[in-house]
Amino acid sequence: MTIHACLLRTGKTVVRRLAVLLAAAVILSGCTEQRLFAVKAVAAGVPSLAPFFEEDGSLGTDETKLRPEQAHSGLQQGNTPGLYGGTQEPKVCDVDRLKDFLTDPRNRQKAREWARIVGITPDRIEGYIDDLTPVLLRHDTLVKNHDYKKGKAVAFDALLEAGIAVLVNDQGLPAVKCSCGNPLRSFDKDPEKISVKFEDGNKKWDGYEKSDVVTVKPAPEPLERIALIDVDDPDQGINRPVGSTGENDEPFDATKQHAVPRVAGMTFDQASQRLSELGLAAAYSDGLPPGDAAVTASDPGPGTELRFGEAVTLSVADDGEEPGTPPKSDPTNGPSTNDPTSDDPTSGEPTTVGPTTDEPTTDDPSTSDPTTEDPDTGDPDTGDPSSSEPTTDRPTTGEPTTSEPTTAVPTTPTTSSTPPTVEPTSAEPTSAEPTSADPTSVEPTRSEPVTSEPASSAPGSSSAPASGESAVVPA
């Protein structure tokens, strides 16, 4: 009895220890999964504690009354129309003053650190700044900011409030915070796992919503102009040449609507670029796709009228599909992209793109199906291989073409008086499977070109071979 009680106590002790270990493992696992990245909030108009340039308003000013816009996507490319704002004010960034400051020999150490962060040598600072463009943020934007402490640039993740003036590069990426000259880089962490800290005078601002925070990725190719929204008049747009400070701005009507183009079959980069040219934004639901991913559909579909800056959500092919592969038929994009004429709906000429299978199809009249009307005679050619009646426009040996089935089979000229006979295994199709002699099939290795001219052995008749059929060459 004593032994039994001892074993029982030992078993309970082991169970308790296992339970404690299991609970600890669960807690540790949960802590790892919930680990967040600290992000420092930077409010518009609030001076930095350790700036590169003294923040006294002489280098740049923020628009403190601009509320953050609702974002259509948390990840946006630098060429997104309306991503940034502009103003008719003479300058929100004094780039000449910034260049003078960083090229002053007294600020050599700051210039060295500043250049190191942006990835250039100090002697290239002036040229680099000349290629930047001043804009105003319209969204609360995540960046990697840099203070200057004890002779070194110190990086920290920051959330810049909408209304802050920044300089962006030719791919639309924030590069400099105007008011203090601090260099900026792209945010490189998961934006879904951030914890924003409002401290050091940077109180939570009106309109802040964590779900509307954006991260900017580079445009697919360098920009020539940046399409801005006038923050003083949202119905007005501003086209600002890259590298200019507002002196060459061109206003445009931001209320004008544009039709969504057909983008199915393009790569993602091509589609987003095409939308950007029309003043429309490219949106995506599952993170930024690869640039060469094949676009399969858009929402809304082609032809929908949208205002400047409105978003078109792009769907892309699965990873297993080849980039640029024409997608399946999609109701939001009109006819199937397997249709060779779908790129130009007004064209009646088929392209060289054929069906994706070896079996003939009749569902799509725009494909290279021989069931078309003969342009020369106006007669329809059924081309139905399952029909027991052969076509009536094949040349015969010296006799006019008739509708008699036994005379429609091409034969070689003979000198005997024996009429040609129909062999069951001849070129006459007897089933739905086309044979090699079926005029509707095209032999890629045949040396004889396809022609619409009648065979030379046939006398003049009222029926010529249909356009697109190959002439029968005597054996």
Layout of helices and strands:
Blueprint: H1 2-33, E1 37-42, E2 75-77, E3 84-86, H2 95-103, H3 108-118, H4 125-130, E4 133-137, E5 141-149, E6 152-160, E7 165-168, E8 174-177, E9 182-183, E10 185-186, E11 194-197, E12 214-217, E13 225-230, E14 236-241, E15 250-253, E16 257-259, H5 268-277, E17 281-283, E18 295-299, E19 305-307, E20 311-316
Parallel strand pairs: 1-6, 1-11, 2-12, 3-13, 5-12, 17-20
Antiparallel strand pairs: 3-4, 4-7, 5-6, 5-10, 7-8, 8-9, 13-14, 14-15, 16-19, 18-20
* Spatial strand order of the main sheet: 9-8-7-4-3-13-14-15
Percent strand:
15-25%
Approximate helicity band? 10-25%
Structural class call reads alpha/beta
Tell me, what's the shape?
Answer: globular
Q: State the end-to-end distance.
A: 105 Å
Mean pLDDT: 74
SSE string, helix = H, strand = E? Answer: HEEEHHHEEEEEEEEEEEEEHEEEE
Largest sheet: 8 strands, mixed
- Count of strand segments: 20
- In DSSP terms (H or I, runs of 4 or more residues), the helix count works out at 5
What gyration radius follows from the Cα positions, in whole Å? Answer: 36 Å
Question: Can you tell me the residue ranges where pLDDT is under 50 for at least 5 consecutive residues?
Answer: 320-475
